[in-house]
Design goal:
Elements (H helix, E strand, L loop, with lengths): L18 H17 L20 H10 L4 H8 L15
Helix pairs in contact: 2-3
């Protein structure tokens, strides 16, 4: 759908990509850099409020201009700001 428009390092919502594949790739890149006597820097950011500061209509119009499919745009349209709640239950 839009996979070819995303950078190769992005892994969210892509087939055969996960948090695990991202971590494995990062660790492998860091290991190779250390082996080659290069510096490794890490920047970690919290994106939990990312959708709070953007103008939803502007985002959707930009995605449409970049050629994203209408189904994907409709999916994003249903996301910001909604009364959604998530719950995780861990069972042993």
């Amino acid at each position: 759908m839009f996979d070819h428009r995303l950078g190769h390092a992005l892994s969210a919502y892509r087939k055969t990509h996960s948090c695990e594949t991202t971590l494995i790739n990062l660790i492998e890149n860091w290991r190779l850099a250390r082996d080659n006597k290069q510096l490794v820097g890490i920047l970690s950011t919290d994106m939990s409020k990312a959708f709070d500061s953007m103008h939803p209509a502007l985002l959707l119009s930009k995605l449409r201009a970049y050629g994203f499919e209408e189904n994907f745009i409709n999916l994003l349209r249903s996301y910001p700001p909604c009364e959604r709640f998530n719950r995780v239950k861990l069972a042993s």
